[in-house]
Amino acid sequence: MKIMYDLGDVVMMKKQHPCGTNEWEIIRMGADIKIKCLGCGHIVMLSRRDFEKRFKKMLQKKAD
User: Fold this and answer.
1) pLDDT at position 61
2) Does the predicted model carry a pTM greater than 0.90?
3) d(Cα 13, Cα 64) in Å, to the nearest integer?
4) Which PANTHER family would you find in this protein's record (predicted)?
């Protein structure tokens, strides 16, 4: 099954961030995916493979 996500979507990752939340917003997509923690604003860049391995579920699609 292919995971469908896009720029601006809010996703839940398997492990929570040290600030206590596991909700992240996708802010850049390409070969790497950059996500921003919605709790503290910390930004992390992951390879697409690592992102898909750590992805848990889609929380909110980008508002059009």
Assistant:
1) 85
2) no
3) 23
4) DUF951 DOMAIN-CONTAINING PROTEIN, HYPOTHETICAL CYTOSOLIC PROTEIN
